[in-house]
Amino acid sequence: MIILGIESSCDECAAAVVEEGKTILSNHIATQIAEHAPFNGVVPEMASRLHTQWISGVVRRALEDSGKSLDDLDGVAVAARPGLMGSLLVGVSFAKALAWGRDLPLIGVDHVKAHLYAPRFMGEIKYPFLGLLVSGGHTMIAQVNSFDDFTVLGTTIDDACGEAFDKVAKFYDLGYPGGVAIEKLARGGDPRAFHFPKPRLKQGRRKYDVSYSGLKTAVVNQRLQFKKEGAVDSLENLAASFQRTAVDILIGQLIAASADTGITRIVAGGGVAANSYLREQLTERKEWETWYPPLNLCTDNGAMIAGIGYHYLQRGDRSPLSLNASARVDAFKGFIQKSPAAPRKGCS
Ligand code: KG4
Ligand code: ZN
After folding, report:
1. Please, are residues 95 and 73 in contact by the beta-carbon 8 Å criterion?
2. Ligand 2: distance of its center to the CA of 270 in Å?
3. Which residues have beta carbons under 5 A from ligand 2 (an ion)?
4. How far is the CA of 223 from the centre of ligand 2 (A)?
5. pTM above 0.70, yes or no
6. Is 137 in the pocket of ligand 1 (CB under 6 A)?
7. Most exposed residue of 84, 229, 298, 301, measured as fewest CB within 10 angstroms of its CB?
8. For residue range 23-63, what is the model confidence (pLDDT) as tens digits?
9. Index of the ligand 1 atom closest to the CA of residue 300
10. Pairwise CA distance, residues 117 & 27, whole Å
11. Residue 223: what pLDDT?
12. Per-residue model confidence (pLDDT) at position 231
């Protein structure tokens, strides 16, 4: 089966063609980073407008690169949630029009689940595993029992991990996207120069929840300290210490979740999974079998959407043409309709 995957949930306009859920025939990503960089963050209205301008070209390019034509497709998968509403709607509308026009099955997929599918392009990963999803919008530790069966063990109770990288970078004017800028700066710094606090979460929440707002505030307040002392300490040290603490928070919760569940297979996905310090910390633990995607599949891409879409389609699921985008985080409930196929006239 050959699936076209479309991704437009945030600032990457992306499309890919994937065969049998594992062979990437093409993976075209048009990033809007340069457009949003002057604002140090994603401007939602601008993101939607750019998706509108770019989507046809991006899909055409993905098809061309794959050597396939629309006639070869067996389905169209699209990231339908969560994300920026305006941005999601562009991909969803495009996918719906294409599916309807070509009489192809439509599969609306959850972007968060798709991020944890991306490492599967590296090889066959057995279930269950502990999934670590770390992106700009979400942070989650889950027991993953199948491609879409997730038991959530912990999430962030405030900022997402990538969001903390982005906000710290923005505050210190380090560059955009924040995670990339901080990792680069951190290479020249001492990760033990500053001792930033790790969260102590109260009981009653999920056992493996994390929190990033305290760390973010501590790093931001450090600037006042610099000013008081009349010295600007090295930003490299600050970046390295922040990065170490941010990653250690995740590793600490993963160690606990692994000990409690007995699961030693760890799979990371999402933009922050591109971070080399996080990768080092994961692979250093020899008792773990660790998987993460190559760099171009960590951040948003169409291949992970097509890949997971294949499994839904193979199971006989498809979305109705009334599929809507949703900004909500709903990685944990299915929203794909079971077959029989949706009626073609449901798209009003
Ligand atoms: O998965 P993604 O492309 O988009 C969302 O679904 O949010 O992740 C983007 C996030 C941003 O917060 C960005 O700063 C972070 O991933 N990021 C990184 C790195 N590369 C991207 N964070 C830490 N280290 C990196 N190398
Ligand atoms: Zn993402």
Report:
1. no
2. 6
3. 135, 300
4. 30
5. yes
6. yes
7. 229
8. 999 999 999 999 999 998 899 999 999 999 999 999 999 99
9. 3
10. 15
11. 80
12. 59
- Residues (pLDDT < 70) of the chain are 203-204, 227-233, 329-348
CB-based contact 189:239 (threshold 8 Å): yes
Give Cα 66 distance to the centre of its chain: 24
3-state secondary structure of 210: strand
B/e letters for 241-268, b = 16+ CB within 10 Å, e = fewer, are bbbbbbbbbbbebbeebbeeeebebbbb
Instruction: Give the bridge partners for 81, in sequence order.
Output: 110
Cis peptide before 320 (omega within 30 of 0): no
- Which atom of ligand 1 is found nearest the CA of 274? 26
Q: For residue 291, what are the β-bridge partners? A: 267
Instruction: Quote the CA–CA distance of 207 and 229 in Å, as a whole number.
Output: 39
Distance 298 CA to ligand 2 centre (A): 8
Please give the distance, rounded to the nearest whole angstrom, from the Cα atom of residue 117 to the centre of ligand 2. 12
- pLDDT attached to residue 338: 40
CA distances from 118 to 121, 196, 270, 314 (A): 6, 32, 9, 18
Q: What is the Å distance from ligand 1's center to 70 Cα?
A: 32
Q: Is 177 in the pocket of ligand 1 (CB under 6 A)?
A: yes
Residues 6+ apart with CB under 8 A from 131: 116, 140, 141, 142, 143, 144, 150, 267, 268, 269
**3-state class of 148 per DSSP?**
coil
- The values of phi and psi at residue 337, to 5°, are -80, 135
- Summarised one tens digit per residue, pLDDT across range 240-298 is 999 999 999 999 999 999 999 999 999 999 999 999 999 999 999 999 999 999 999 99
Ligand 1, from 135, 249, 277: best to mutate by most atoms within 8 Å of Cβ? Answer: 135
Q: Answer yes or no: are the C-beta atoms of 145 and 151 closer than 8 Å.
A: yes
pLDDT of residue 343: 34
271 Cβ closer than 6 Å to some ligand 1 atom: yes
CB of 87 within 6 A of ligand 1: the answer is no
